[in-house]
Amino acid sequence: MGLETLLADAGGMGRFQWVAMVIIYMGKAFCGWSVLQMTFAGIIPDFSCESETSENDRDVHHDSLPLNVTLNKCSIPGNGSVSSSGTEESCSSYNFTGSYRTVITEFNLVCDYSWVKPTVTSIQMLGLMVGSILAGQLGDSWGRWKTNLLCALTMALSNIGTAFSNCWEVFAFCRFMIGMGIGR
């Protein structure tokens, strides 16, 4: 006797099964969007180093550059002039072009901090792995319903937490907790 025959004998796919399936998979759709969030929230717009000089001084400075010198997006000339042997200082703030704000623009995650975006994604995947292990154990001891509810609540509250994070470290912690909530 095959699986199809057993399912047909049990009544097949009725209205209750369809409703239950839609409700269950609607919750899973939110999990998928939470995993993909960094793809869209981590877009790196075009940027330049923000100088401490006024806008007029910056225009004059860039117009007076020698032709063989290119400016680095991540540093500015250290002594105010550009030469082939001049020193450069790292930027402390950046000008981002575009009308949208991303995690990158909020926390200045470019140049020296460009490693943060892939690290946050890895932290989220670590949370997913830890959540999968914990959800399996909690499901055995508490039951699937309570475990699913706890994971959904963890994911929802952590998503709200990412919206209000004031530094990338808090953002990364919230992404870890989202991963744990998804790992059910």
From TrEMBL:
Domain (Major facilitator superfamily (MFS) profile): residue spans on this chain: 20-184
One of the record's GO cellular component terms: membrane
GO molecular function, one term: transmembrane transporter activity
UniProt keyword annotation of Plastid present: no
InterPro entries, alphabetized: MFS_dom, MFS_sugar_transport-like, MFS_trans_sf
Transmembrane segments: 16-36
Lipid bilayer topology: Multi-pass membrane protein
Subcellular location(s) per record: Membrane
Keywords, comma-separated and alphabetical: Membrane, Transmembrane, Transmembrane helix
Protein name: Solute carrier family 22 member 21
Species this protein is from: Elysia marginata
Organism phylogeny: Eukaryota, Metazoa, Spiralia, Lophotrochozoa, Mollusca
